[in-house]
Amino acid sequence: MPDRIHLRPSGGYRKLRSFRVTEIIYDGTVSFCDRFIDKRSRTHDQMVQAARTGRQNIAEGSRAAATSSQTELRLVNVARASLDELLLDYEDYLRQRGLPMWAKDAPEALEVRAVGRTDEPTAEGYARWLEHPAPAVRANALICLIHQANYLLDHQVSSLEGAFVEGGGYSEQLAAARLARRRSGPSPTDPSDRSDPTDRSDAKPKAPACPLCGQPMILRTARKGPRAGSQFWGCSGYPQCKVTLRV
Q1: CA of residue 78 relative to chain centroid, distance
Q2: Could you count the other beta carbons within 10 Å of the beta carbon of residue 68?
Q3: Which residues contact 241 (CB under 8 A, 6 or more apart)?
Q4: How far apart are the first and last CA of the chain?
Q5: Per residue in 64-119, pLDDT tens?
Q6: By three-state DSSP, how is residue 209 classified?
Q7: pTM for the full model?
């Protein structure tokens, strides 16, 4: 009998450090683009949209956490990709105009990163850079913030991957429970589970698709650990995809 299905905590994204940092990046990018990039240009819209997407997808992923770990993981990865796109835009801006780009260990960069180690990152804490009259100072400070946000999101993705493998959200738990019920025999209350006793098509369990990457799963046998000898479904994309499901 599978463990009872439960809803994971969801929402609460405003408490996430990654969300607070990306909100500062979004507001700083809007201000930067309005002042230093022609509003009629495509670059202006693309940079603002990339910054907004980075923030919004963290919030949407957090809201989806209760129902689907896969959806949350996908949205956080979209946020990470959007910030990478924005990072390139700022680097292009500096390079194409011959403006200096701070090295990772430059005093200015270290000063910006020092603010990021505070408990509550706020726009006010970065105002001296994000409201600076020189575009190079603003762009470099935002680059530092994007690196900080990417670092936070990398750790967030790693944590979400672990949560997904352990049990997932409601949708993944429901799918696993349904699969376990079908393997244990027909339910008297569910006509869809009843089958013809002469039908041998179910003699061997049908391999499900991996809920994360979509590849077919393979029936494996645990060789060690507390479940040694028991069977489980493992993704055929292993080791790139480590998703497992109970049989």
Answers
A1: 7
A2: 23
A3: 210, 212, 213, 215, 235
A4: 11
A5: 766 667 788 888 899 999 999 999 999 999 999 999 999 999 999 999 999 988 76
A6: strand
A7: 0.64
